[in-house]
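Worked problem 6 (solution included).
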Amino acid sequence: VQLVESGGGSVQTGGSLRLSCAASGYTYSSRCMGWFRQAPGNGRERVAAIGINGRTSYADSVKGRFTISQDNAKPTLFLQMNSLKPEDTAMFYCASGPWGSPCSTSTRAYNYWGQGTQVTVSS
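Solution. The predicted structure is:
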């Protein structure tokens, strides 16, 4: 199983980026998929997740700005990020829970991780 993120980069405040996470070795269906981020000196926090039934959840800090989606046929997970702020600057990771897993905000609930993609937002 391998998760590979892409789409990070540097943008100015108010800009947009779309992150992708391509999976090999399995499918996204029947498991929770999440996007996490980690800024220097901070812990890893979940910003968005999409569950088995397609239900999405977001951290309060990104609600209305970020959108998580997935294409099970490819399979690829996406994170559309709009109205970016300097405080969004972080390394972003996609993560997968075990088959049949409910979504959780805890990193311990996810057993596969990508290598991360850097997002930098300048003021």
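Discussion: The mean pLDDT is 93.
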